[in-house]
Structure formats: structure tokens, C-alpha cells
Amino acid sequence: MTKLDVLRRYLLPCVSPPTNPATASSQSTGPVSKKRLSTSLRDDIDVQDSASSSASSSEATSFSTAAADDDSGYLLAATQPPRPSKTMVIGTLFGRRKGHVWFCVQHDRLSVKPLLLLELSIATSQLVHEMGSGLVRVALECPTRPELKSCHLRSVPVWTMFCNGRKLGFAVRRSSSEETRVMLKRLESMTVGAGVLPSGSGSDLDEVMYMRANYEHVVGSSDSESFHLINPDANSAQELSIFLLRFSA
Q1: Cα torsion for 115, 233, 99, 176, to the nearest 10°?
Q2: By the 8 A CB rule, do 160 and 140 touch?
Q3: What is the spatial distance between Cα 195 and Cα 189, in angstroms, rounded to a whole number?
């Protein structure tokens, strides 16, 4: 080997270092695709826009669903019938021993003007017998005649009366007379009780029998009201109920 060959063998690697086969193979596989910065930013913006639009559409769908639920709940509440109103009143049944029964309703025991005053066709002795034998249901009915259609239910002048399913004549709305006001004045200190008010003449026939108690006044509609006696004993059933009903003829 000549000196020139020896120098070429040892000095050539220092001038041009050998290439790594793996690196060369990786570089020779093909050109690497580089994404421009503007293209990358545009792709990111498109992805964000699509995500925000999908979120907005889902929020709009949920809002419309909630609004539909609210509307359906409102419509359901609007179509439901109104609930009956209930109030407490003072009711007094009274009448002479040989006369008919009267039914008086007051807002409170000190009210001079009755809320409702009816003269019933049932005799006092008969009502006492009915109440002694069990429950009493008095139904006062009137047809919806043209002249009574716009009339307040408690202002109807004449009613057909039924007691425990039997027709017993009529009931008539009355105005408070001086005798009635005097009797209510004598009972204003009493809320619940029953007894006899003596007459001025001293005759037993002129004595006024009465039963005074709290009643639950229920207004079901413009064509139905009822009064239910509330017993002081909470375990007892309602012994007396009076219904006002107006029906289509």
C-alpha cells in the first residue's frame, strides 16, 4: 500500500463523516408534509366554530323543551276546574214547636243581617225526629230558568225541598224581620248550643226551639253551594248538610 492510500484511508473520514444508515433511510422515505401556520390556525378556528355551534344548538333545544314544558303545565292548570272554596259560618235552625223550621246563616255571631235566611216547609217536630234517627241531608233544587240564570244562587226566591231523598214541599227565601233580629240578638253570645227560647205570652206553643252551630260553607260553583254542620265531637260524622243546587231544566 502506498503512502497516498494510507493518507486517504485515515484522513477522508475526518473531512466527510459517514452517514447513519437509519437516518438516511428515514430521510429517503419521502418528503415530510409541513402544514403552514395560516392553514393550522384556520383549521383550529373551524373546529371551535363547529363546537360552539353544536353547543348553541343543544342549548336552544333544551330551552325550547323547557318552554314547551312550561306551556303544557300552564295549559293543564288552565283547563283544570277551579277548586271549591270553604269558609266557616254560623248556622241556626229555629222554629216554633208547632211551626216550620227556619235556617239562618251569619258570617259571625254578631252579624245583624243574615247571609241567608230560608223558611223550610218541614215541621219542627219532623226535623227533630229525622235528626234523632240518623243523618239528615236537605237538598234545595231549582231549575235554571231564563229569569234565574244570572241570579246569584243565594238570591233564588223559591226552592224545591228534598229531605233524605223525599220531596217535602218548598223552601222560600225570606228577609230578616224584627222578630228574627230580636231572636238573633238574644243568641249573639252563643256560638254552639241548643235549647228553647221562652215566649212573652207564656204559652208552650209560642216557644222557639233552636240549634246553633258552626257550619262549613262550601262553594263548588255558581250553581252549587252547601252547608255542613261541624260537630264539636271530632270523631262524629256530619249529622246535617244542606245543599243548594241549580240545574238545567
Answers
A1: -10
A2: yes
A3: 14
Strand pairing report for 136-143 and 240-247: parallel
For the chain, give percent helix, strand, coil, nearest 5. Answer: 35, 35, 30
Q: What are phi and psi of 94, to 5 degrees?
A: -150, 165
Q: What is the pTM of this model?
A: 0.65
| Residue keyed to cell 401556520 | 37
Distances (CA, A) of 157 to 14, 88, 123, 128: 131, 24, 20, 25
Please give the sequence-ordered ranges of beta strands (E in DSSP) within the chain, or none if there are none. 85-96, 100-106, 116-123, 136-143, 158-163, 166-173, 193-197, 208-221, 224-229, 240-247
Q: Dump pLDDT digits (tens) for 170-229.
A: 999 999 899 889 888 989 888 899 999 887 665 666 789 999 999 999 999 988 999 999
The residue with cell 452517514 is 19
* H, E, C per residue of 137-171: EEEEEEECCHHHCCCCHHHCCEEEEEECCEEEEEE
Measured from the Cβ of residue 195, the count of other Cβ atoms closer than 10 Å reads: 13
Q: Please report, for the chain, how many H helices and E strands are present, in that order.
A: 5, 10
d(CA 4, CA 94): 150
pLDDT tens-digit map of 123-179: 999 998 888 888 899 999 998 777 666 788 898 999 999 999 999 999 999 998 998
